[in-house]
Structures
1.
Amino acid sequence: MKWNRFTLKTKTEAEDIVICTLAEVGIEGVEIQDKQPLTDEDKAQMFVDIMPEGPADDGIAYLNFYLEEDADTEAILKDVRAALEDLRSFVDIGEATITESQTEDKDWINNWKQYFHQFYVDDILIVPSWEEVKEEDKDKMILHIDPGTAFGTGMHETTQLVIRQLKKFVKPGDELLDVGTGSGILGIVALKLGAGHVVGTDLDPCAVPAVSENKEANDIREESFDMMIGNIIDDKAVQDQVGYEKYDIVTANILADVLVPLTPVIVAQMKKGAYYITSGILDVKEDVVVQAVKDAGLTLVEVTHQGEWVSVTARKD
Ligand SMILES: C[S@@+](CC[C@H](N)C(=O)[O-])C[C@H]1O[C@@H](n2cnc3c(N)ncnc32)[C@H](O)[C@@H]1O
């Protein structure tokens, strides 16, 4: 199959919101080319700690996307341009020029699907949208998740560590806060395990369409999973919106360097007796997070390991 490649020139600070806008008009799998150094949030999202120094940031981002050769390119680009003009009224997206740069002859856009197949996390089956559930698996707890712009397919050890803790601690009707919700996978598992309601927060605006798609794919009622974009660590408005002494469980699968400042903040959001399930901690940082939960006045409940990753669970007594 032939694909036409288009390159959209924008500003680095606008690239996330532009990618979300492209997703809203049906364009996914966008490649980013920029010279921006990774922020702590990027590192938290990508699970990398050290990156070599790159060239200086010039503020420009090139976003490459692909359309099938027989797609109605004119109509799609018209929708893209209209969506970008709407966006321009509240975000500086720079030139936002689109150029056709290349034709590729391979089905690369679908090629990666050969690397993502259904798999089990213990007794929970995670199935991408392009695969059928086998007859013998239909009685299992099934999660429909596709790899997308937000982190969280269930393949990563850190996600699996939290899923196992959710299976131990979720009670019917629980109110759950998921900090760094990404694809929403942890909230969706919690709801399937009987939780009553989930609030997800993330810094990444792409988490909003990702959670929305995954709710729909998993028949989650609209009102049972709310999303908020912002940084609960230092944004009082986000803390107020999330609410205080409200949650039976808080999950946070983020790097240790984010969990340390998050922990003292999150205690105020938890009910008495609530559980705090953290993950995303490299084994060398285990002691730092254990100390942070103790310093925040929480009681250490359990530390679990998978590969080089650690999950720390604590309770507010
Ligand atoms: C490793 S992913 C976890 C995704 C999903 N919850 C899972 O368990 O698979 C970490 C997520 O945390 C988000 N994140 C990083 N720092 C954050 C912060 N201070 N507040 C909210 N989200 C944050 C990232 O954008 C990313 O989506």
2.
Amino acid sequence: MILGRRDVLEVRRLCKAFSGLKAVDDAALDVRAGEIVALIGPNGAGKTTLFACIAGFHKPDSGVVRLDGADITGRAPHRICAAGMVRTFQITQPFATISVRENIMVGAYARTSDRDAAAARAEAIARQVGMGAQLDRRGADLTVAGRKRLELARALATGPRLLLLDEVMAGLNPTEIGEIVEVIRAIRTGGVTILLIEHVMQAVTSLAERVYVLNQGRVIAEGTPAQVAADAGVVEAYLGHGAAARLGGAHA
Ligand SMILES: Nc1ncnc2c1ncn2[C@@H]1O[C@H](COP(=O)(O)OP(=O)(O)OP(=O)(O)O)[C@@H](O)[C@H]1O
């Protein structure tokens, strides 16, 4: 047992329905200080909705979200950001006509109102995510990989203790995935705790100490990447009813 690792994030009995569809159904999870935790699950499992409820973009129907022990359930995103938690978005939307530097400064203004300080912070963070040479490029001129890095940088510029990453590797090639995995690892080494939604299993396996699996709004498994990959219920959720038996003894 690891002693002394406190919970940064606690989610309990969280529910969110859309017109009767239970997108998140009694979900619970914990993220401890310094961890990288992954949230995985088939398409439509409720991962993004759970993130949105945690970060204040949706008001949950019921349940509790605690950040460092404080109840933040239903608080507005900017207040949650000020409290030290920020999320990125799956669909990246950089400001197209302004530079990478200015895009990152938008995040930095969450911590400072001084323009020079925000610019200096933006430049330091750009270097941290490997965008030091692209500071003057316009948002519109970035590749998919560049937009993903910028999304990460904008979030990081707000100075979070807990960073929620929604599919930052989607659409990237294996080389780009390898590079962003290293960036994420370095962010954690710098003291930021990370919860990430990810479909790229190679990245989940190499980054995450623990994984939660969501299916139809419910957490169906939790454990190390190897433990959840060997879980019959998880195999069923991804591949359909009876899959575990069809795959044979290893998953039965
Ligand atoms: N704003 C909304 N209004 C109505 N239904 C929604 C809304 N957002 C999500 N849903 C539905 O809630 C369910 C969960 O969606 P969600 O996007 O959270 O899943 P996901 O696990 O993030 O999926 P993916 O991996 O495909 O991004 C889906 O059935 C989706 O259609």
3.
Amino acid sequence: MTTSAADGVRDPFRDSSAEGREYGSSEGSTLNVGRNATLTLGMDSLIVLDEDTIERDASNCCGLIPSSKHLCIPHKNADMYLTQRHIGNKATRAIPFYNILWANINDYSTASEIVINYAHPISKSCVRTKSLAYAVDKADHRHAEAWTESLLDCAYGESQRRKRMKVLINPFGGKGQAKKYYDRDIAPIFTGAWCEVDVERTQYSGHAVEIAQQLDTDRYDVVACCSGDGLPHEVFNGLGRKRDARRALRKIAVVQLPCGTGNAMSLNLNGTDSPSLAALCIVKGLRTPLDLIAITQGDRLMLSFLSQSVGIVAETDLATEHLRWMGSQRFTYGFLIRLLGKTVYPCDVAVAVEIGDKAAIRDAYNAAVSSKAAPSSRSSSCSGEITEGDDPADLGLPALKFGTVQDALPEGWKLVPYDKMGNFYAGNMAYMSANANFFPAALPADACADLVCIDGDISRRAAIGSLSAVETGAFFDMPHVHYRKIKGYRILPKQRRDGYISIDGERVPFEPFQAEVLAALGTVLSRSGRGYEARGP
Ligand SMILES: Nc1ncnc2c1ncn2[C@@H]1O[C@H](COP(=O)(O)OP(=O)(O)OP(=O)(O)O)[C@@H](O)[C@H]1O
């Protein structure tokens, strides 16, 4: 599953003037450049009409040497353009606005040039930064400046330009390739978009918690994790430990550049596990509030952004480390072994159910995704709500409405024995890994987590059927899949001395814990600004 960088292009050659672009006349939307070339703001794309089909090398364009240190190395291939059509001896090319990273005008003593950096697809799952450079007539300078600003408006829309990023690289994430992916696939996209970037490698497990806890949140907009899902988990928790945690979690968008074995965050928010496509999505990402789940266990408090599991998923994930050589097959193998053994994980569970009926869950999902609400709006009930003038000391994590696992059960909660529990799985995002849309009804900020419970003693046929149904999208409707929207729960594993509990893919002690949804407490960047890149229920 990858994001097409050319998404959103209807007819790239249609001129915007016919559609009533606010920019003005067709003359206004076109910039004459060089001897015989024009740049036009089309409907969804920048239209480049040039004398020949060979892109000029910015370093020799009209004899001008680009001075910007941000300028990317231009390519020398002729096949750079996404679409091209020959008109006489001229060629028209369209570069989707989404792929435009930056545009600027360089002034020299005798001439000026416009430089446009963009992300060029070299395959379905990879983009590379390239540049166009054209001479701009001195007489056209003012128009060129206004035109460049319009191009940036089209390219960025509501997304913040030149984001200030703290980049964290886990040198041991995935197959230990994160540094290589960053240098080759990610950094050139950020440089091309003129982002401000400050890179740090994590030195040990838990280092990202400390970095986030000490982060000067006024200096950054984003913490970008070149990692699996482990580093984002640590960053949310580090921000959550700040004195002004609510403000920090609201101010700083936590994002993932997929470089790990588990890259669910990027799959959900950007629809890709390609580092270069994810980098483009982050450059163009829209701020999106995210519910976080407070987990209390013993006297500890932790924030979870992705999932909690007790039973087969936790065990498959955490007890198959010795099978790493199998790659992603280890999950399928481990899962099947336990399914065939009809393994059960007895526990007592109390759940605060918000919506318990699948039809109602589907309706709520459809209503939310078709709502016209501003993409980045936070409801007044969100846990991160901050009032002007709040004292930082009062801006810590919100108080837990349900208390902690050490308190008496909240009013109205009832512990129910589940002696045949096979899979207790709570999710805050839809995809748990590529093609595993376990929680199709999950939404970033609906103030609910989604809970799936499956008995461990169902027939082997039904169990194996549910494994393939996760891929096909039939999982949600299976009768043995109990799917609920919830506000919180308490779970007490029993009859076993030891076992596996996974919070965001990390192992925690095999002890009772309690979960409470903290509505819209966190912030991420997403492609759509409103939902996950997964098919709904
Ligand atoms: N320098 C380091 N040395 C050892 N561990 C580290 C280092 N930096 C980060 N970590 C730890 O690596 C763990 C896994 O990180 P991450 O999620 O990025 O990769 P992954 O390959 O998807 O992980 P997983 O091992 O869960 O499959 C995190 O819990 C983090 O604390």
